[in-house]
Write a structure and sequence with these properties.
- The chain is mostly helical.
- It is globular, with a radius of gyration of 18 Å.
Length: 260
């Protein structure tokens, strides 16, 4: 239901939504709608109840530190961007609903606990996060850990209603998506996307200009198990660095926060 949305549905389904203009409670209301209702499910409580999700949101907000950029507002903004990417690519036709859910939750938690420092700085200063995670994506590993740490609380466990196999799939998705927000993975992802295109270039070229994916494109490209996790990782990475794609006013505001 859109009754509790603090903005119009048309704004949510556009690139003009500016999270910086919303209060914390308004941001959470938007994100709650994206994850519980925006999946276009006949059952908004298919994976989690609103009560548990609200408790989860509160703990996630508490987990974000007071940073100019890597903060709770950025998390909600990235979650909305992932939602828009899923919508624009008609992902409901080729990405299982469970992975929709996992990806949106991952977006909300992808920078939780961020101290406002970079991975190279943590490694060079022998910070405890670098020591703990053996210099390998210490921030992103920590973000993943904090997400699942919150889920150890039964009152806030957004994955508590899943069976064992579904939980394994969700955990795999969340970890892959968040770890690939580390910029060290960027160029390898570009290579992987180029390879996916080269393997299916004829099919991909025929899709140019199509508003809806053809059955051949869905079966050979989008539903290819070898590529599905790549697309999930790509959506998260793209959403995390998507500010230059937004309207200039929004892009400029976030750029100034990065400088802070």
């Amino acid at each position: 239901a859109t009754d509790n949305l603090p903005v119009t549905p048309s704004l949510v389904h556009s690139w003009d939504l500016d999270m910086l203009e919303l209060s914390s409670q308004e941001q959470k209301a938007v994100t709650r709608w994206l994850i519980l209702d925006g999946l276009q499910s006949d059952d908004p409580e298919q994976f989690v109840t609103p009560t548990i999700f609200k408790a989860f949101q509160d703990q996630v907000e508490d987990g974000y530190l007071v940073n100019p950029y890597h903060n709770h507002t950025h998390a909600n903004d990235v979650c909305h961007t992932v939602f828009r990417l899923l919508t624009e690519t008609t992902a409901s036709e080729w990405l299982p609903r469970l992975q929709h859910f996992a990806l949106l939750v991952s977006a909300l938690c992808h920078d939780i606990g961020h101290p406002g420092l970079t991975n190279p700085f943590l490694v060079e200063t022998r910070h405890m996060l670098a020591v703990c995670y053996n210099d390998r994506s210490p921030l992103e590993n920590m973000h993943c850990s904090k997400l699942f740490e919150i889920c150890t609380d039964p009152t806030a466990n957004v994955f508590g209603g899943l069976d064992r196999e579904s939980y394994k799939e969700v955990r795999k998705t969340c970890i892959a998506a968040i770890l690939h927000t580390d910029m060290v993975n960027h160029f390898q992802m570009v290579k992987d996307v180029n390879l996916a295109y080269e393997m299916n270039c004829e099919i991909c070229d025929r899709e140019i200009g199509n508003l809806e994916p053809s059955e051949r494109y869905k079966s050979d490209v989008l539903l290819n198990d070898d590529n599905r996790l790549l697309y999930i990782e790509l959506f998260m990475h793209l959403a995390d660095v998507s500010n230059p794609l937004k309207p200039f006013k929004i892009c400029q505001a976030w750029a100034m926060l990065v400088l802070d």
